[in-house]
DNA sequence: CATAATACCTAGAAGATCGAGGTATCCATG
DNA sequence: CATGGATACCTCGATCTTCTAGGTATTATG
């Protein structure tokens, strides 16, 4: 096999379990539709994250089914049909919990990774 | 509705994808066996994380199969049989990459969650 | 002897994400 | 008008990680 020396490796676009909370946070700022939510997260991450549509739409469906989001078809400023999502009150509560959870768990990982074996 | 107001909810013990890097980091400090690795991570996290054996042993197997770890049966100080793991040179490289990946991705999530809508 | 702690292992289920496909509309360009 | 790109949605199947829940064996303790 010629060429193709790249390592496909494990190249996750996002940390598993963080998509939901990022969606909720994005919608806390303003109601929005799927495509725009994805672009907003990507921009907000400084271009580090990529939101795949195959992850995004199932996540939105999941969150709505769970009662954290409500949605309706509307028209964008540019005249396109799109499904707009907004947080429900349950979603607002969930957001607070999940942000807290993220802080706790990511700080814990950081401690494990960073913990100095001993002082110099 | 009597009692039982607690929500079992989604209570992941760890952030998906972080177990491997925490194992590698733990073994960078000292060779160790599975059970001790789990306890070390739990201690290192300040008691926040719980390492389930059903996650731990498959992960160790995975990492060894991948070439990041080598292992051998040995006897602990307390006279017990245990499989001791240590990093291979591939494992040391992987550790550096995965720590870097973690820093990048967790910082990105942090930006998305924290991003101020606008200056005060 | 019963129990807890240490120490290992596995099978099956659940859940999230990804890759790859599909549809449709709008707009610019040639 | 034909083409292609961007916008906007959706879904299926595969993959991967973790959890639940079992199991074995040894050592130490009461």
Structural overview:
The structure is a homodimer of 120-residue chains. Chain A is an alpha+beta fold and 120 residues long. Chain A has one domain (19-113): Arc Repressor Mutant, subunit A. Helices cover 51% and strands 13% of the residues of chain A. Chain A contains four helices and three strands, in the order H-E-H-H-E-E-H. Chain A has helices at 19-29, 34-44, 53-65, 89-114; strands at 32-33, 69-75, 81-87. A three-stranded antiparallel beta sheet of chain A has the order 1-3-2. In chain A, strand 2 and strand 3 form a beta hairpin. In chain A, helix 1 (19-29) packs across helix 2 and helix 1 (19-29) packs across helix 4 (89-114). The longest helix of chain A is centred in the C-terminal third of the chain and has 26 residues, at 89-114. The A-B interface holds A 12, 14-18, 21-22, 25-26, 29, 41, 44-46, 48-49, 97, 99, 102, 104-113, 115, 117 and B 9, 12, 14-18, 21-22, 25-26, 29, 41, 44-46, 48-49, 99, 102, 104-113, 115, 117. Chain A binds a DNA duplex (30 and 30 nucleotides) through residues 10, 12-14, 16-17, 19-20, 33-36, 52-55, 57-59, 61-62, 76, 78-83.
Strand content of chain A: 5-15%
Total tally of structural domains of chain A? 1
- Radius of gyration of chain A, whole Å: 18 Å
Number of contiguous helices of chain A:
4
Q: Work out the oligomeric state of the chains in this entry.
A: homodimer
| SSE string of chain A | HEHHEEH
CATH level-four homologous superfamily name of chain A: Winged helix-like DNA-binding domain superfamily/Winged helix DNA-binding domain
**Broad shape of chain A:** globular
């Amino acid at each position: 096999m010629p060429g193709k020396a790249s390592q496909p490796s494990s190249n996750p676009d996002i940390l598993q379990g963080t998509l939901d909370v990022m969606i909720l946070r994005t919608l806390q700022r303003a109601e929005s539709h799927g495509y725009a939510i994805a672009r907003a997260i990507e921009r907000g991450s400084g271009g580090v994250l990529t939101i795949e549509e195959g992850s995004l739409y199932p996540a939105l469906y999941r969150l709505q089914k769970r009662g954290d989001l409500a949605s309706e078809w509307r028209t964008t400023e540019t005249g396109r049909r799109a499904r707009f999502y907004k947080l429900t009150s349950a979603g607002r509560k969930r957001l607070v919990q999940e942000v807290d959870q993220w802080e706790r768990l990511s700080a814990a990982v950081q401690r494990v990774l960073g913990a100095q074996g001993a002082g110099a």
